[in-house]
Amino acid sequence: MPKKTKVIHKEDQKNSVGRLLFVVFAVLLQIAWFYLILVHLVDNYIFISIGFRILSVLSIFSIIGKRTNASIKMTWVVFIMAAPILGWVLYILVYGTNFRRTMQKRFELADGMLFPYLDQSHGVLEALRRESRVARNQFAMLEQYAGFPVYRNTEVVFYKEATLGFEAQIEALRGAKKFIFMEYHAIEDRESFGEMKEVLLAKAKEGVEVRLFYDDVGSVGFVNPRFVQELEDGGIQCRIFNPIVPIVNLFMNNRDHRKITVIDGQIGFTGGYNLADEYFNIHSPYGYWKDTGIRLRGEAVGTLTLLFLEMWHAMDDSLVRGIYNYLPRHWDRFPGEGYCAPYGDSPIDNKAIGEDVYLNLIASAEDCIYITTPYLIITDEMSRALTNAARRGVDVRIVLPGIPDKKLIYAISRSYYAQLLRAGVRIYEYTPGFIHSKQVLVDHRIATVGTINFDYRSLYHHFENGVLIYESPCIFDIADDFYEVFRVSREVSPEWGKKRSLLKRSVQGFLRFMAPLL
User: Fold this and answer.
1) Count of CB atoms within 10 A of residue 200's CB?
2) Does 1 map to a domain?
3) Number of domains into which the chain is organized
4) What's the pLDDT at 314?
5) pTM of the predicted model, to two decimals?
6) How does the protein associate with the membrane (predicted)?
7) 13, 115, 220, 305: most buried, per Cβ within 10 A?
8) Quick one: 370 and 435 in the same domain?
């Protein structure tokens, strides 16, 4: 269990939150200034007004031609038509900045150096095809479209509670001999990270290479320069993803939501939980916090290693050297453990890998689809896939929180209930509190567990990761976890939402319309 350590200084916490508020204020001020200048120019110079109208039309055509979801396109088009100047300004800031293009080039360079090291064994795909063509097609999409191989001989362990995963991580970290890579959306310098920090510092002192990578927004209010200095003084390399700065840069909207730990290239961890107190119920602002995790041992850890190095090197445009030092020549082998494929998703490569995995799983279901997600803000394609599955007789169940962490997002999530219930989808709310796990189980044979929520931010705006698993013994543990969650959750009545007022339906409709931009 995480043990108590020193509590972060309140003044440092206030300073980090204050930094975020200052950045938000500065960015909004710059947008407002840019907007007012454009309004003045358009109102007073006819040629600028005509030119701006032409730019707005061209922007709309550009949006329509983009390789992205239709709901996102529609929101931007309507926004630009309803508020041409403001809509155009925001669109250019999000999609037209040099910084975004620079980041795309950095990731392309890193991927070009790293991912050729991921080699797919054709014997594995052929063996999988003989067992199940449907499963083979699921994994082939990841390998052929996104470059993520499918592996055998990898042990997959499922943890039904974040605390169990955390304890296993501590034990594995103590055994590290060569290197430790850790990448998390949020790290909090309190009880949850205290014991782990001691182990990391001890390992760095022993000569183990330790790298820690975290998202600046996700960890704001949790860590501070004093914390980072302590780790770096102890020999731990720290790097921040996409630091927030008081300059207009809408790449700041893209956050690192991945959760990855790699130890010596042989053991890897991922799942839904960050390294902060609330994930382990050390404090419980939203009732009981329910989360899950995965441990990998064997060949598949190589993908997690390269996903970490991709983010690490893309952030400072550094050359990737000595990759073989982090990919063992010989992995531990675990025959008979089924198949698995770790995968990543990026908001800047025009590939919605996470959503495609979910859609393919839903489309292939014959018996059941079980889903847990903290948020349900879905595209028309996802809604149609779920309702079509229910209409063809598949047992579709979705579990959401009983106690929300974000009331606005909760209200939008619940606005989808009525249409899903009408089609026969069963919806549950987790009575004990907040369910944060992101997992899908189909036909008790194939599952995915990871960081990807059923919402626009995860599917289109964040860097994410997950593991696709087929016929592994851990599938039984995942199924047992679902049935335990169903047992303690409240099923939403099919009559839910039938008596919503016109005002409530209108407000929910507006929020859903704006959801792609949230």
Assistant:
1) 23
2) no
3) 3
4) 85
5) 0.88
6) Multi-pass membrane protein
7) 305
8) yes
